[in-house]
Every structure is written in C-alpha cells, then in structure tokens.
C-alpha cells in the first residue's frame, strides 16, 4: 500500500464558533474523556516532531525518509488544530493552563534533549528510548483512530459535527501513518535483542503513563467545567456508562493493544482499516472546507 500513495499533511479548516462546551449533548463524562486528547496532543505531537528531527540523520532508507517527513507534517498539523480547541475551551470559561503546563514539563524536561535525573545514558541510547515511546504512543493513536472511525454510537448521540470531524480526520490520519513510528524505531533502534527489549520497555512506560494522564485530565476538565459547577465527579462508574453506550472505546479494545504490540513479530500495518481511513479523508468536511478556501483564494 505504501508505494501507492504518499503520506502527506492535509490542509484543514475547522470553525469552532458554534461548538458547545458539552459537544456530546448531555454526556459530560464522554465529552471530557475525549477532550483529554486536546490537552495531551498539542505538546505531545510537537515533541514527536522534535525527536524525529533529531533522528532524521540516522535514516538510511529513502522510502522511510519520505514517510517520516509526511508523518512529521501530519503530526504538526494535528498539534496546531488541537491547540485551537484549547483556546475555544478557554473562551468558554474552561482554563486548561494549569494542566497543560504539567504536560509541557513532561515533554520538554522529563523527555527533553537530555535524560532526566542525571541518568547516565549515551545520546544515541536516549534518542532510541524516546523513539520507542513514540512508537508505543502511536500504537494507541492507531487503535483510537480506528475506533472513532467505527463508532456509530457517537453519530447517534448527535455530537457537534465540527468536533466529530476533527476526531475522525485526525483518527484517519493516525490509521494512515500507523506504521511510520514503528518502522522508524526499528530502523534506528539498533539490533535485537536490545531493540526488542527497548520496544517492550517503551510500551511498559507509555501505557501506564497514558492511563494516568488520561484519568487525571478527565478529572481536571470535569472539576473545572463551568457548566457542571462541581455537580459531577469523574468516576469509573460514569466512564463505564459512557463505554456501554458506545461513546468511548472499551477497556478490552484499549488493553488488548498492549500484548499485541509485545509480540516479537508484530507490525502495526494490521491495525485498523486503511481503506476506511482514506474513504473518510476523501469526504472530511474540514478538508473540503480548506480545499474550497484555497480554490476561492486562487480565483480572487
Ligand atoms: Fe496525530
Ligand atoms: Fe500519529
């Protein structure tokens, strides 16, 4: 499939003006659990691009280099578009600054250019470790992307169409580039068994970290939501209620991604449906709106 098209960023345009704070009507828990994406991705995806830039000189394969550059373009677009949502949340009275400052610290300092806590690792080893973390995160973004493309219950809940489009456009590109971070890690990660052991370590650190950040983020958003004014708390019960309605992925869908990734012969090309992703990208309103704007600008 890789030879048939190039991975490249798409121009998109989202208009947040009419998106309500609870963009899934009457479902604040599902709304805010999904909103955690906007808290983590602007800093997280910016960090992906930074680490990949550092690793580019190690790439000795032309096809991979093209994929990696396309991946970097897509991730930096995602990061920018999610940061616009944060601005929109702030305009509606939900300030996410205190949370995102911690996320910035995680990516800029704990996972920054040098190992934290005075850890004595070579530059090369520290880079390889960070690449293994990116590959592990991308396992989850592929699973979530596949989920959001298939989540018919979300449509039935009549969510804000702009937010649903953002999630599906992003999810579809995650499915489209699902193998790139893994291939990059395999290419730059040295040789087995150290490479395979580090791949497992990357996942062993990433999965609990994401789980923790997600719970903390959902709790933060619900606590600071001016519409809820403290009437609701984030709880496993409310979360599972939203899962049962099909508004969030099941624990099994998320959890099974880990042992699958741990298999020695694993490759992410088996995640999700590339056809479904490309079909969505061909019709995404945000992509069409941006294409229309470009067309209009050319005519004027
Ligand atoms: Fe992304
Ligand atoms: Fe991605």
Automatic annotation (TrEMBL):
Residue stretches spanning the membrane: 200-222
Keywords per UniProt: Hydrolase, Membrane, Transmembrane, Transmembrane helix
PANTHER family: METAL-DEPENDENT HYDROLASE (PTHR39456:SF1)
Enzyme Commission numbers on file: 3.-.-.-
Organism domain of life: Bacteria
Lineage: Bacteria, Bacillati, Actinomycetota, Actinomycetes, Kitasatosporales
InterPro entries linked: UCP07580
GO function terms (MF aspect): hydrolase activity
Pfam family for this entry, one: Metal_hydrol
Enzyme superclass (EC): hydrolase
Signal peptide: none
UniProt-recorded name of the protein: Metal-dependent hydrolase
